[in-house]
Amino acid sequence: MTGLGLTAWIYLLDEKIKEQVDSNILQGTRKEILGGRIYLRNCHNKGMALGIGGKDKKNCQDISAAALGAAAGEYLRQSVQKKPALGRIGLGMVMGGGLSNYMDRREKGYVTDYISFRTNNKKLKRLVFNLSDFCILAGTGLWLVAGFLPSHKKRAGKIRKIKNNKKIEKNCVKQK
Description:
Elements: H1 3-24, E1 30-33, E2 38-45, H2 57-80, H3 85-108, E3 111-117, H4 122-126, H5 131-146, H6 152-175
Antiparallel strand pairs: 1-2, 2-3
């Protein structure tokens, strides 16, 4: 699956999950799943990650749009420069999650978050996520890891250079 295919898949899946959560789970309630280790909730986050900036909806939308545009621009740059696919897959995940959350902010004025974890840590217990949040986090990690990988062109050049050096070595042996 290409990075853009992954973008579409994440966007559509998360939008469908958010629709189900908004229709079937009342705000302020939770449903236990996986033996109570995970809670399904319906939380309307008017801010960015961790609820930061919730009082200024327009600013949240602008920051989301800018981040989404930056990810799309980086995806295009990596595609043109034939960078490793891992980076484009990561950016596809970032764009899918970012697009889903951006469209929520734009259309509803908030993002529907629905996953939280049972933990004894009071700060972590209050956090609520959605699929898009996890994809943005994991995609950013993949993109960063891919930045440390050699590009396809560099690897191909090294392989050609090694092959050429072996030919030279063979020629040197034959001349003795």
